[in-house]
Amino acid sequence: MKGSTFKRCSCPAVHGSAGRRTTCGKAHGSWSYRVDLPGLKPGQRRQVMKGGFPTRKAAEAALADYLSKAGRGELPSSDTRRLADYLAEWLTGMRITLAVAAWTNYRSVLNLYVTPRIGQLRLTALTGPALTALYADLLDHGGQKGRSLSPTTVRLVHRVLTKALNDAVEARILAVNPAQRAKVPARHRIEMRTWTAAQAAAFLQATAEDRLYAAWVLALVCGLRRGELAGLRWADVDLDQRTLGVVSQRTTDADWNVITKAPKGTSRRTIVLGDAAIAALH
């Protein structure tokens, strides 16, 4: 956001050698400032002007004060869109940059926990305390049938909102991100609970006749994830070399269509198969 000062008086316009209008040097008239604002639509130009200052210094001081308040998010905005409308537009744009699973998760988080509660608020009226109140309400009543929601899920809501509002700042719709001023539930490290060897053996014994028995073995013995198991093909398995390649996974898109894609970076790997896995695959 940039601004400038200029003088207004009744004298005829005088232009310099470069063709630009020069400031009148006489001790009359008044000074004004002008600030260029972000457009509400691409290509749109908006300005704020204020005049009546007796000197250039007075106009410059007022301009500096305006820009300072704008930087702190203390000025009213003429953008009247609701938070729900902005988030819907933001999700549409994010669909081309996020992986399908991530985008679907973002949409679910916003549609379940944010839009129904504070979507009616003006985007530019959103504050840190309003988001703190949202998080407190989610902790107490955000779950199914009004039950409490876990702090981990509330932190996820905060992360998605922070990303959406950061993009509003980058687009010059907001001067500051109100999510950065919200209080977030503390992170509590939870110890991972896993089956013992005896419990895993009991599970495999109970599912020995299940049609997905081989999948259960690979999940327990090789650590394959659900999407990796669903995407596994016989072409990825070499029983002679006793190896299995994790080279694809299956998931669903936003419309619940099944899609197959490559795993992320280090998730693509080769696993050496033990006797239990080899036996299950034969």
Which regions have little confidence, pLDDT < 50, spanning 5+ residues? Answer: none
Shape, principal axes of CA atoms: elongated
Main sheet specs: 3 strands, antiparallel
Helix/strand order, N-terminal first: EEEHHHHHHHHEEEEEH
Which properties best describe this structure?
282 residues, alpha+beta, DNA polymerase, domain 1, hpI Integrase, Chain A, 3 domains, 3-stranded antiparallel β-sheet, elongated
Question: What is the topological layout?
Answer:
Elements: E1 2-8, E2 30-37, E3 46-53, H1 56-71, H2 83-94, H3 100-118, H4 128-141, H5 151-170, H6 197-206, H7 213-222, H8 226-231, E4 237-238, E5 243-246, E6 249-252, E7 258-261, E8 269-272, H9 275-281
Antiparallel strand pairs: 1-2, 2-3, 4-5, 5-8, 6-7
Can you tell me about this structure?
The structure is a single chain. By secondary structure, the protein is of the alpha+beta class. It folds into three domains: 70 residues, no CATH class; 99 residues, Tyrosine recombinase, N-terminal domain (DNA polymerase, domain 1, Orthogonal Bundle), CATH 1.10.150; 85 residues, hpI Integrase, Chain A (Orthogonal Bundle), CATH 1.10.443.10. The chain is built from nine helices and eight strands. The strands form three sheets. Strands 1-2-3 form a three-stranded antiparallel β-sheet, covered by helices on one side. Strands 4-5-8 form a three-stranded antiparallel β-sheet, with no helix packed on it. Strands 6-7 form a two-stranded antiparallel sheet. Helix 2 packs antiparallel against helix 3, helix 4 runs antiparallel to helix 5 and helix 7 runs antiparallel to helix 9.
